[in-house]
Amino acid sequence: MSALRIRSLAHRYDHSAVLHDVDLTVAQGEVHALVGFNGAGKTTLMRAALGMIRPTAGSIRIDGVDVAHLDRVGWAGVGHLIDSPFVYPELTVRENLWTAARLHGVSAPTARTRADQTLAALELAPWADRRASSLSQGNRQRVGLGSALVHDPRLLVLDEPTNALDPAGVLLLREQLLTRAAAGAAALVSSHHLDEVARIADRVSVIHAGTIVGELDPHGVDLERAFFAMVHAADVATRRVESVR
Fold it and tell me: Which of 76, 85, 147, 229 could form a disulfide with 100 if both were Cys (CB 3.0 to 4.6 A apart)?
C-alpha cells in the first residue's frame, strides 16, 4: 500500500487553475522528489496532501485513508515542513522539539529522549537552550526540520527543505532522509536543486503548469537538461492543443 496516493487532483484559486489532473504516489521506503519552477504548483499540492486546503476535485489518501477522515492517530504519523519553518520564538530549541513530539502524541518521557536525539542528529545541541527567536535563519530551518522528524513519522512532506541551510545542514538532512527511508518511512520532497535531488531521490516527478508532465531518472546524465527538455515539450504540446480549439 502506498504511504501517499493522489489521484486526479485539481484546485482553483478564484478563477485560476493551480492544479489539474495530478496523479502521484509515494511508496513506503521511498524518497519521491517533486521538481518544478516557482508557481508550478508544488506547495499547493503539498498543502492539499496535508489537508491544509480542500482541493476542488480528486482524492488524497494517506495509508489508504482519505485525508478528510484521517484521525489524530493517523496524523501523528505524518511530519511536514511547508513554506517556512514553524517555531515558537519564545521557546528554546529543546522546548520546541519536545513540544512538537508531544503534539504528535509522543509521551513526555519519550519526547525528552526524542528531542535530545534530534538535537544531536541535526547538530543543534550548542543552541539547545537558546530561544528560537535568537537563531539564524539556517538554524531556524534546522529546528523546523527537527520538529517534522522528532516523532519518527511514517510519512514526511517537505517543501524546499534545504532552503537557508548551509552545506553541513544539507548533508545532515540528506542523511536523515536516506536513513529514515531505509527504515521504511516515505518522503515527498519538493526542490529546485536537481543535483541534490539526484543524491537522495528514488523517483523524481516534474510538475509544470499545475500538472505532472513526466518523471526524470535520478541517476541519469545531465538532469537539468532533461528537466528543461521535458518542460519545453509540455509547453509545445499545450500550445498545439490550444491552437486546435
Answer: 147
Q: Note the pLDDT tens digit of each residue in 180-202.
A: 999 999 999 999 889 888 899 99
Q: Are 164 and 137 in contact (CB under 8 A)?
A: yes
Number of structural domains (the chain) is 2
Q: Measure CA of the first residue to CA of the last residue in the chain; give whole Å.
A: 40
Pair 78, 181 in one domain: yes
Q: What's the gap between Cα 186 and its chain centre?
A: 10
Q: Is 201 helix (H, G, I), strand (E, B) or coil?
A: coil
* Residue range(s) defining the domain that contains residue 207: 203-245
Q: What is the pLDDT of residue 64?
A: 96
Helix (H, G, I), strand (E, B) or coil at 64: coil
Q: Which of 40, 50, 48, 49 is nearest to 18 (CA)?
A: 40
Q: Which strands sit side by side in the sheet containing 65-66, from one edge to the other? A: 16-26, 4-13, 57-62, 65-66
* pTM (two decimals): 0.95
Domain harbouring 89, CATH code: 3.40.50.300
The last residue of one of the domains, among 192, 213, 230, is 192
d(CA 165, CA 141): 7
CB of 28 closer than 8 Å to CB of 57: no
pLDDT tens, position by position, 78-134: 999 998 898 999 999 999 999 999 999 999 999 999 999 999 999 999 999 999 999
Would you say residue 84 lies in a domain?
A: yes
Q: By CB neighbour count within 10 A (0-12 exposed, 13-18 middle, 19+ buried), where does 222 fall?
A: exposed
